[in-house]
Each structure stands twice: as C-alpha cells, then as structure tokens.
Design a protein that fits this description.
single chain; mainly alpha; Cytochrome Bc1 Complex, Chain D, domain 2; binds heme C
C-alpha cells in the first residue's frame, strides 16, 4: 500500500504523454484558415454540402498535405496548388503538368465533382496520376469540400 502514492505521478505522466499523441490533439498545419467570408460561401452551397465544417475540413487536409498546398507553385513532383480550386475548371494551373486524363476531363470542381474525386479519384477519372486511395467517410469529404470552398472564396 505504501507504494501506491509514488506510482500515481508516474501514471499521470504516462497518461499525459498518451493524450499528447492522441487524436484529440490536432496536427499543426501550415495552410490557410477559413475566413467568415469563406464560411458564408459554404452556407450558400446546395445541401448536403452546406452542412460541411471548414475548420474540421482544414484538419482533415492532413490527408492531402503530402502532395498539395495553397501556393501558386504547388508541390513540385507531388501535386498542384489548390488555391482558388473551388469552382475552377480542372487542370487549369499553368505551371503544372497534369495527366492527359485530367486535361481532357472537362471537369469543373464544384462540390459534387469534388465529392466523387475525393471518394475515389481513380474511379472518378481512370488515368489520373493522383496517387490517393480516397475517403469513404461522407462527413470527412463534406468537411474537406467545405474547406476548399471556404479558402477559395474571395
Ligand atoms: C500522393 C499525392 C496526392 C495526394 C495524397 C492527394 N493528391 Fe490531389 N492530386 C495529386 C496529383 C498528382 C494531381 C494531378 C492529377 C492528374 O493530373 O491527373 C492531383 C489533383 C488534384 C485536384 C485537381 C487539381 C486541378 O488543378 O485540377 C484536386 C481538387 C485534388 N487533387 C484534391 C486533393 C485532395 C482534397 C486530397 C486529400 C483528400 C488530395 N488531392 C490528395 C496528388 C495527390
């Protein structure tokens, strides 16, 4: 019994260390924050996309961050910049070498098109070079779309 009090602080330290790595602690992402104007743009979308949460989508962008940023340069060798992507035609960044498939797609990145793309890019467009398996969670896709719409709103 005399040992119990000494063991407690050690347990508390272990619990704190676990909490620090747990899912409760959002990753630090160097990407734009959604603005109030961006939030307005999300609310103006058709249902169910108007229910997306851009702040949660910003955190979910951790799934995209290896290949995409929001700079005009994009990430050479990885993926094009996604600034102003919402509502834009596909394959429109002049500094990026896209796949033939995406250049010929005629896609415009509205919410529905992005939804299919993020669900499974290879199913949405056979021949794309986006090496990403897709996201099955409807909520996570909706939040990501809300984030892209919000940061594209000017
Ligand atoms: C492994 C790298 C990689 C990951 C991860 C990735 N992408 Fe991509 N993405 C690409 C590449 C490469 C292209 C260009 C595809 C092509 O030319 O067919 C692209 C294209 C796109 C485009 C079209 C860009 C344009 O200018 O038309 C969008 C939108 C997009 N990605 C969104 C996302 C989102 C959202 C995520 C995260 C859920 C994501 N991507 C994850 C590599 C990636």
């Amino acid at each position: 019994m005399a040992r119990a009090p000494a063991a407690l602080p050690a347990l508390a330290v272990a619990a704190a260390a676990l909490a620090a790595c747990g899912p409760d602690r959002p990753p630090v992402l160097n990407i734009p924050e959604p603005t109030p104007k961006g939030l307005e743009a999300v609310r103006a979308l058709d249902a169910p996309f108007n229910a997306g949460d851009p702040a949660a989508g910003r955190q979910a962008f951790v799934l995209c961050i290896d290949c995409h940023d929001f700079t005009p340069e994009g990430m050479p060798g990885k993926g094009p910049g996604l600034q102003d992507i919402f509502g834009a035609p596909a394959a429109a960044k002049s500094n990026w070498v896209y796949s033939d498939a995406l250049r010929a797609s005629g896609f415009v990145w509205d919410a529905r098109r992005l939804d299919g793309w993020i669900f499974n890019p290879h199913e949405a467009l056979p021949g794309t070079t986006m090496g990403f398996i897709g996201i099955r969670s409807d909520e996570k896709r909706r939040n990501l779309i809300a984030y892209l719409a919000a940061v594209s709103a000017k």
